[in-house]
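To assess whether ligand presence alters the predicted conformation, the chain was also submitted together with NAP. Input:
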Amino acid sequence: MENLYDLIILGAGPAGLSAGLYGARGMMKTLVIEKNMLVGGQISTTSEIENYPGGMISESGTELTMRMKDQAINFGCEFKTDTIVDIDLDSKIKVLTNELGIEYKAKSIILATGATPRSTGAPGEKEYTGRGVSYCATCDAFFIKNLEVFVIGGGDTAVEEAIFLTKFAKKVNVVHRRDQLRAAKSIQEKAFKNKKINFIWNTVVDEMKGDPIKGLESIVLKNKITGKVIEYNGGNEPIGIFVLVGNIPNTELFKNKLLVNSGGFLIADEKTLNVKLSSTGNNLEGVYVAGDCREKLLYQVITATADGAIAAIASEKYVEKVYN
Ligand code: NAP
C-alpha cells in the first residue's frame, strides 16, 4: 500500500518526539504529525527546564524539544505539519484524515496529543486574552515589564512562572483558591523567599475588566471565606494576568470511542500503554497513548518521554507480531 507507515504519532511534544526517536531507531517507517509549526507542545512555553536529567542548565522548553526533534530526524523519523480532524481506529490499518480529506495510513498509532491550558471561566477572560490576559509567562513576560501582575493558580506551573515573572514585573500577586499551594515544596520555598511575590489566599477571580480599545484594565477578586470583593487596577498603568490553573487533555477526537477518566484523560494499560475501548474496557491493539493526554501520577517531561519510548516499543512489537 502506498505511503503506509508502520507508526504514526499524533502530536510532537516530548512524548511524541521520544516516540518518533524510538520508532525510527527501531527501523519502523515513522511519521510524527503536529498541527503547530513548532514542535514541543506545552513545554515550549517553559522558560527553563530544571529537572530533566541531563538537560542543559538554563535550557528552555523550545531548545530541549528542538534537540529531541533533530535526534529523531537523525534516525529517519519524518515530520509533517497538519491538522487531523478524523481518526479511524477500527480497521487493522488505522486512517487519519486531515481538514482537506487527505488520509494518512499506519499499522499502528500513538496518541500524544497533550493538553491545553484550562480557563478560570471568569467574565472578561476570553475577551482580554492576548490583550493583558495570558496563558504563557515565557511568551508574554516581556509585555509586563515593571507592571503589577496577577498569576492565577497554586500548582507547579503557577508558582514556577510567578518566580520567573519577578524578573520582569514590579510585583507578582499569586491568587490561589485555597490557603495552601499545590506546588512541590521545593518550588514553594523559593516563592516564599521571593520578596516580589505576594500571595492572595482563598481567593477566586470574579471578573477581568477592561476597555475594548485599551485592553485589560483591572481584576476583580473575591475572597471565598469572607465574601469580600476587591477590584485591583494598576493606577495609571496596565496590569497583566497569567491564568495557570492546569490543563484539559486534547482527547476530543477519540474520547467517545476510547476509555477516559472523568477529566477526559485516556486510561491506558500501564505495561504497554495500549489504549482501551470505552465499550468493553479491552485493550485496542495497535493504538497507544503517551504523555499528558493520559491519566497518570506525574506530568513531567521525563514521564512524557518515558511514555513515548514505551509506546513506540510496544507498537514495534505489535507490528512485528501482526505483519511479519
Ligand atoms: P495543576 O497541578 O493541576 O494545578 C492547577 C492549579 O490551579 C491548582 O492549584 C488548582 O487549585 C488551581 N485551579 C484549578 N482550576 C481552577 C479554577 N477554575 N480557578 C482557580 N484556580 C484553579 O496544574 P499545573 O500547575 O499546570 O501542573 C500540571 C502538571 O504538570 C502537574 O502534574 C505538575 O506537577 C506538572 N508540572 C511540573 C513542573 C515541575 O516539576 N517543574 C512544572 C510545571 C508543571 P487546587 O490546588 O485548589 O486544586
